[in-house]
Amino acid sequence: MADLSNFPITTRWPAANPDILQLYSTPTPNGVKVSIMLEEIGLPYEPHFINIGENETWGPEFLSLNPNGKIPSILDPNGPDGKPITLFESGAILIYLAEKTGKLLPADPARRYETIQWVMFQMAAIGPMFGQLGFFHKFAGKEIEDKRPRDRYLNETKRLLGVLEQRLTGRDWIMGDEYTIADIAIVGWIRSLTGFYEAGPLVEYEKLSALPAWFERMLARPAVAKGVNIPARP
């Protein structure tokens, strides 16, 4: 049995099975990327719910794993060379899991980098812009009388949706006929934008066709349907 006692996070969230990957997360758009990926590849894992509403990511145990204080993070006792490895940043975790298992990342070098570029597109553009729009549309930002900040993120979100619509026109998946980590990286943010943030009408989501069709294909995947609710909220 693996000894994870050197990792302080296991004192706060003990591992029931220290021989399998430990996931520390919340079912947010970023968090579900990893749970969906783990469900897709069939790698055994143990999820731990991190209550971000109670600021649990800012405790010393979680910060020992991710000094940036954000979910998701993982502790894999079976890392490179058989040694434990910890990782944060959802995009990095997706690439790690894909390379560890040889799944959902093309082996062809050109297609591999093309896939990674779409993961980076999500990390650098979709996540930050959709998240800011959600803040200004649904949360405290909606109380700001000056709507220019909201409209800045609204216009950029609509532009990014247009990029996805164009990319998916004539394609089943971001990489065409091959389902990859690029699809997994994006699906939670479309789900949150149109659901949790209630911004579908605001961004005129109904005017799109290829993107909503892709989204329905994503939701129909058993691993996606399961992964969006992992870790389960108490």
Order of helices and strands: HEHEHEEHHHHHH
Provide a count of the helices. Answer: 9
Which ranges are low-confidence, i.e. pLDDT below 50, for 5 or more consecutive residues? none
Largest β sheet strand count, sense and barrel closure: 4 strands, mixed
Rg over alpha carbons: 18 Å
Name the CATH architecture of the largest domain.
Answer: Up-down Bundle
Tell me the number of strands. 4
Helix content: 40-55%
Structural class: alpha+beta
Strand arrangement, largest sheet? 2-1-3-4
Q: Classify the fold: give the CATH topology of the largest domain.
A: Glutathione S-transferase Yfyf (Class Pi), Chain A, domain 2
State mean pLDDT (0 to 100 scale): 97
How widely separated are the two ends?
Answer: 28 Å
What is the CATH class name of the largest domain?
A: Mainly Alpha
InterPro entries: Glutathione-S-Trfase_C-like, Glutathione-S-Trfase_C_sf, Glutathione_S-Trfase, Glutathione_S-Trfase_N, GST_C, Thioredoxin-like_sf
Pfam families: GST_C (PF00043), GST_N (PF02798)
Organism: Rhizobium oryzicola
Protein name: Glutathione binding-like protein
